[in-house]
Amino acid sequence: MKLTTKDITFTALFAALIVVGAFIKIDIPLPLYTMHFTLQWLFVLMAGFLLGSRLGALSVTTYILIGLAGVPIFAAGGGIGYVLRPGFGFLLGFILAAFLIGYITEKTNATKFIQLLVPATVGLIAYYSVGAVYFYLIKNLYVGEAVSFAVVVVQYCLITVLPDFILCMLAASLSVQLIPAFKRIKEYQTI
What is the pTM assigned to this prediction? Predict the structure, then answer.
């Protein structure tokens, strides 16, 4: 994959925005695990809408790699040990979500609010699916706490899915305004 300076700049910008989103959080203490509701999802959505599948997923991957390298930019810290936290799967879900949001937006050439809600919803489902499966596997196989998949879905997905869908609507609304500007910037060539 060949990246231009513009691509690298946009990728870094959205990785930084996701970092900022991680620190705007509400902690939700639950019986099995403290859930962190953050604004990361807003910037993951925007990365997919505005950067497309390839760069959107790359910006999220960059964010995750920096956190795994030890920089405390995740909602609850950082470091390679973070992969053993049950909530790490939601971060991995961000990569798939950004890719799918960007891919669907590119293929449908979506620019209107309702059109953008489709890839946002697909991304939300992907993000929660990866997160829930990872959470279930880590709790049952690594931590050794028997937790049913239904409990994971009810206690760790249903509690934040509505606020995350509201973020989908906010990101779609903002992206309607920003997509034309990003298209012009991408098309602009320097001499």
Answer: 0.90
The string of pLDDT tens digits covering residues 85-108 is 988 999 999 999 999 999 999 999
Per-residue pLDDT reduced to its tens digit, 42-82: 999 999 999 999 999 999 999 999 999 999 999 888 999 99
Please check whether residue 45 is in contact with residue 167, taking contact to mean a CB–CB distance below 8 angstroms.
yes
The secondary structure of the chain, three-state, reads CCCCHHHHHHHHHHHHHHHHHHHCEEEEECCCCEEEEECHHHHHHHHHHHHHHHHHHHHHHHHHHHHHCCCCCECCECCHHHHHCCCHHHHHHHHHHHHHHHHHHHHHCCCCHHHHHHHHHHHHHHHHHHHHHHHHHHHHHHHCCCCCHHHHHHHHCHHHHHHHHHHHHHHHHHHHHHHHHHHHHHHCCCC
Domain extent, residue 87, equals 5-187
Quick: pLDDT tens for 24-44. Answer: 877 766 665 566 678 999 999
CATH number at residue 35: 1.10.1760.20
Q: What is the domain count for the chain?
A: 1
